[in-house]
Specification:
With about 375 residues, this protein is an alpha/beta fold. About 30% of the residues lie in helices and about 25% in strands. The protein starts with 7 loop residues before the first helix and ends with a strand. The structure holds pyridoxal-5'-phosphate.
Length: about 375
């Protein structure tokens, strides 16, 4: 039997509080352990927590107290980080797609560090946030990631050179290069390819007298779902040796932006079996319907990308493959069907099911009252 990820604190909370309906419970002790593990793995990198993974105020306050900085994507996320006690110099506006009036608002709030991936965005920042630092995001192929980020963000390295040169010409401070190797990245060499690209941008601009200072190495650090993943320490070693390889003894300032890796394993969703049925008497595969699905916070089951560990009160009994689905009247609300999920044959309507590794990308993905189901409630303990 694998060690369950629900901590004793979470199990005790659920046993004593018995919250009604599906809910997420996050254990702050685990978030703290994750933060310390990142600090130890990459002691020379600054940590900018990706707020979108889970913006619960308790999490942001804890991370502020631990010394974290924050990667934000909107004015609201900036305000959340400020409310948690972070000063503006610890916040980056890391979305490459921003309205000019939101940039102006961020500038008013004191934010001086912005992501770009094209000349058009640089021009907005030059107008709305004059003199600020900008870093240019380069594309990565996302290979090896379970939740790749595609071509939506970033540009090719040759264009990043043009973008940062333009930033300089418009009076901005061309600060560095960023990338994101794709979320839930289990290939340790993904950072090496991206750091090689970053180095080419540094070199091309250095020839023109523009000296970049920073590499933002993004997120992508995984959470353990059903399969083991390398520990933070292994990522730290791989990344540090790539930095050495590409930058020699002139390693720039570095940033990491963990989201999933900071909070994913800190949360557990409690849900309940609403129905177990078959589509024909002769079917082997049962359909198991939970009281939470794609619209209640489990959006990352899209294309069955993220496969969460489930804990039932009948674990240890004989299992059989099940299709797992959510409770809404939308036919897309099926979690696992292409690859059915083995669940105990003895599982019964009304049983409680714990969905582990759900601290990241769940509450923020829950819809508001689709079919009358409440957004996912969360308790941070
Ligand atoms: C979402 C995001 C992250 C966090 O990614 P994880 O894979 O959850 O670690 C980091 N940086 C940026 C710019 C992001 O958009």
């Amino acid at each position: 039997m694998e060690k369950p990820m629900a901590t004793q604190r979470i199990l005790d909370f659920l046993a004593t509080r018995r919250p009604e309906g599906p809910c997420l419970v996050v254990d702050l002790d685990v978030v703290r352990e994750n933060y310390v593990a990142f600090e130890r793995a990459l002691p020379d990198s600054k940590i900018f927590y990706a707020v979108k993974a889970n913006p619960a105020p308790e999490i942001l306050r804890l991370l502020t107290a631990l010394g974290s900085s924050f990667d934000t994507a909107s004015v609201t996320e900036i305000e959340m980080a400020l409310d948690a006690g972070a000063t503006p110099d610890r916040i980056s506006f890391g979305n490459t797609i921003k309205k000019e009036r939101d940039i102006a608002r961020a500038y008013e709030l004191g934010i001086r560090l912005y992501a770009v991936d094209c000349v058009e965005e640089v021009e907005k920042i030059a107008r709305a946030a004059p003199g600020s630092r900008v870093f240019c995001r380069v594309l990565t192929d996302g290979a090896g990631a379970e939740w790749p980020l595609s071509r939506k963000f970033g540009c090719v390295p040759a264009m990043a050179v043009d973008v940062l040169r333009r930033a300089k010409a418009l009076g901005l401070d061309p600060h560095g290069v960023s990338f994101h190797v794709g979320s839930q990245q289990t290939d340790l060499s993904a950072w090496d390819r991206a750091l090689n690209d970053a180095r080419t941008v540094f070199e091309a601009l250095a020839e023109e007298g523009i000296v970049l200072k920073m590499v933002n190495m993004g997120g992508g650090f995984p959470t353990r779902y059903l399969r083991d993943v390398p520990q933070a320490q292994a990522y730290g070693q791989a990344i540090f040796s790539s930095l050495r390889k590409h930058f020699g003894n002139r390693i720039p300032e570095t940033i990491i932006e963990p989201g999933r890796g900071m909070v994913g394993n800190a949360g557990v969703i409690k849900s309940e079996v609403v129905l177990i049925s078959r589509k024909a008497d002769s079917d082997d595969v049962r359909w198991v319907y939970l009281d939470i699905g794609k619209f209640g916070g489990l959006a990352e089951t899209m294309d069955e990308a993220i496969r969460y560990p489930l804990v039932t009160p009948r674990d240890g009994d004989e299992t059989a493959p099940c299709v797992l689905a959510g409770p809404t009247c939308d036919s897309a609300d099926v979690l696992y069907e292409k690859t059915p999920y083995p669940l105990p044959v003895s599982l019964t309507i009304g049983d409680e099911v714990l969905i582990e590794g759900t601290g990241a990308y769940t509450t923020t993905y829950a819809s508001v009252a689709f079919n009358g189901f409440e957004p996912l409630r969360s308790y941070v303990i």
